[in-house]
Amino acid sequence: MNSSATSAGPARRGRSELWNWVGVAPFLLFALLFLVLPTMQIVIGSFRTPSGDFTLANIAGLFTPQVMKPFWLSIRISLLTAFFGCLVGLCLAAAVTRGGLPRAFRDGTLTFSGVASNFAGVPLAFAFIATLGRLGLVTVLLRDWFGVNLAAMGFNLISFSGLAITYLYFQIPLMILIITPALDGLKPEWREAAQSLGANGGQYWRMVALPVLWPSLLGTFALLFANAFGAVATAMALTGSSLSIVPIILFAQIRGDVLGDPHLGYAIAFGMIVLTGIANLIYIVLRTRAERWLK
Amino acid sequence: MIRSAKLWSWIAVILGALYFFLPLIGMFEFSLRARRGVYSFDAYANVLSDPQFRATFTFSLVMSLVTIALGILIVTPTAFWVRLRLPHLRPAIEFITLLPLVIPPIVIVFGYIRLYNTSSWLPLTGSIMGTNVLLAFGYTVLSLPYMYRAVDTGLRTIDVRTLTEAAQSLGASWFTIITQIILPNVLVAVLSGAFLTFAIVIGEYVLAALLNRPAFGPYMVWMGGNKAYEPAALAVIAFAITWGCMGLIQLVTGLQKHTRVAR
User: Fold this and answer.
1) Burial class of residue A22 (count of CB atoms within 10 Å of its CB; 0-12, 13-18, 19+)
2) Quick one: fold of B51-259?
3) Would you call B137 and A24 a contact, using CB atoms and an 8 Å cutoff?
4) Best residue of B44, B110, B173 to probe chain A, by most A CBs closer than 10 Å
């Protein structure tokens, strides 16, 4: 086999074409067996009755209050943490890239973001329990030093807001990692041009920087939404099963059929794929649009 | 205008530092509280001497090494081959490698359980070994986006075609080309992908829990429900591992810059 195959005759080319596919066959087989087929199993299963006939009843089952409630809860927590993740992440990234702080801040923030965005799951939940839980460091310090009783103020870590605060720990760093290159793409000339036309800092951001960053911001928002929507371990370790978000319901369903209908489990999983799929599609489309400005 | 921007930047960075460092300080402080009245490393001693800790950590350690090996075996030849012979297939392959970011892991493992159960054509979940194999492939799927992107970026910096033709004209086989020419040239990229894979696999919970394997992630959750201070110690250990992996990635990437001639 050599690389002059392209100049050989048609028969040779046919064989070489086949040989080309042999090279990616292990990968395709792997992807088929452990990624595509399992997902297809879920998608097809959500349109089937237990006896194998076609049905839309499972999908209709998604729109019952019993299933809609967890979906709505998951959507709300994902929207909320994606929004604040974007907002705070943008502020922090802007501060360390354009705020005139020492260069070390920028490098340190990016390195830390790389770690923090991967520090999700069970240990993250433990860290927040040790900090904002009933006996956590911050809870105790606020009580002993400032006389502020978080619990009496209605704060509970094992709740919607507690979970949101915890999720932000990996949402904000992910935003910083994605948006920093976009901020670097803002050309200094644009700011100078705006200033020479009499714009102040707020006007520059509102009328120049944000419109340019808009596709990146919206795209990252969609990515953060999907990121929060699929997270299971953090919520599981933080709240046990007291907060019924979709992944926890699905987890319980897989473990032991809490809903009493195995095919409704397929439909819930299918619903998750649809939502994270749409969010990722938005991200990909908007990222390609955003790249126009970053040349 | 510049001065007020600087002031706001300082405020943002200080607030951000508070939010990000307090939980780290909190978990460390909490992990030292095991002995009444004084700070001690008792929680760490308890964890490290727990046979369950050793067993589950070893299991996850072996799992992550198997995953890394599988990832290198599957990803490197594919990325190389696609660059050399099937460039028109690159968008499709890239799309497949990004799918694990789109489909939540819990959905993927749900599919495994239904597809490879004891009454199916490939009853992987019927035996312990089969389930371990399934878990390793599942982890390889989870690490696919990172591994593929790392290796593909590594391949972009070398001239794959010229290197391959040079090796072929000297009579090298495909095996030799991949192991002796391509792999050493993208070693830094492969290592980066490997460390990231390690950080993901070592504490992974959902796949291991639903496939009923005694991994480190389910052990941590169990500890969280049964002990007070040991979970914080485990969190500190897990954070140190994550930090170590990211540090190693920076280290190998930095080393590469020094060994490469500036072009």
Assistant:
1) exposed
2) MetI-like fold (1.10.3720)
3) no
4) B110
